[in-house]
Give the backbone structure.
Amino acid sequence: MTQSTLVTAASGDDPGDGLRAVRSLRELADRLETLQVERARSLGWSWQEIAEALGVSKQAVHKKHGRRI
Amino acid sequence: MFEKFTKEARQVVVHAQHVAREEHSGSIDGRHLLVSLAESDGPAAGALTDAGLDPAEVSTSVRGAIRAGDPLDGTSLAALGIDLDAVRARTDALFGEGSLDRAGSSRRLWARRKATGHIPFTPDAKKALELSLREALRLKHRGIDSRHLLLGLLRDENGPGARALSDAGAHPERLRHQLENLAA
């Protein structure tokens, strides 16, 4: 998929379609993050290492995933 | 509570798990129970027919509603060039089967699914199961079969199962009447 088709779909004619696509993308990203963080923890990664890989603060990643995993 | 369920009613509960898996739901709510009841060939499906509904249509429309309510929408993602089935194949391989679906459920349900390996019931689905027991007691029936399950779903009028039934064109009072007269 080219960059332009992605932009076209994300900014399609109907705002409803575009917004639903954004919502689904966000949901997909959230779920993948949950699964990846869980796996990294089980492989012994520290919260600091995970935070750096995600490009967020250690506090943020711990707050979001700490109780779940 | 399940020891009072007939074999047929247990199969309905088991099949609700399959429905949730097929629709990629992270949990089982009243709608999944309703689809399972409509797809069974027990007395509940018969009562739906007697009340003027087509069980196959109920199943199709409620499954459609479950899919439409899923925040992860394969059609929207396809418009972006993302193949959700391909993503699922990868997450199944790397994180285990159904991992992408369970990752979408609440923290509490996720923990329970990890512990048991089963797709968990939502509180409303549990309530419907408990109400089916109460319906059987009220009607002085010894066992809980699919009729009581459907009565239990109807009893929780604002629950997702009862609402989905109304959306599918059911008349709750008429259906309840059918079910109570069928029950023996």
